[in-house]
Specification:
Helix 2 (about 25-45) crosses helix 3. The protein has helices at about 10-20, 25-45, 80-90, 140-150, 165-175, 200-205; strands at about 5, 50-55, 60-65, 70-80, 95, 100-105, 110-115, 125-130, 135, 155-160, 180-185, 185-190, 195. Strands 1, 4, 5, 6, 7, 8, 9, 10 and 11 form a nine-stranded mixed β-sheet that branches. Strands 2-3 form a two-stranded antiparallel ribbon. The model has no long low-confidence stretch (mean pLDDT about 90). It contains six helices and 13 strands.
Amino acid sequence: MSNVFVMNHPLIQHKLTLMRNKNTGSKDFRELVKEVATLMAYEVTRNLPLEEIEIETPLCKTKANVLSGEKIGIVPILRAGLGMVEGMLDLIPTARVGHVGLYRDPETLKPVEYYCKLPPDVQDRELIVVDPMLATGGSSNAAIQFIKDRGAQSIRLMCLIAAPEGIEAVKKEHPDVDIYVAAVDSHLDDHAYIVPGLGDAGDRLFGTK
């Protein structure tokens, strides 16, 4: 089964509360999403492999650790996932960024793909799929499958808020994908919105309705 990691660090939880507040405007919301994404990236990358190399400090030669040839890719699910990319690039500036475009059909609630562009060496990269909300799991499952179909071997999913239904859906369809979230909320309402949630993350990021 997939591993699910809930990040309960005080800074993450504090900023998440500010994001949930309906009175938080788009500017502050965007900044908070970026900050939380950076904080979460520390945990998502915790088990990347290291190798020992020799360097010379101002005082002497010594052995120290660096990432072991690991190539990172960040793949936001459009459009809300874009809000998390900059925060992750602050921490991993050499990462390549792909994009998967999906929208949810308002009648069927099923994801529809309209765009997919990934690094050409996707099969050699540790990919982190990012989307603020994991609701039904439909969009995440579809995005992960699109990426797998293009040769990806190692994928992690990072979301701010998840519903139990979404977590179970991803675990069922992609048991090899680890899931990282800042909070697991109560449930989905009749319109497949996460409760209590934070509303539509895309609209709040970009000031649309």
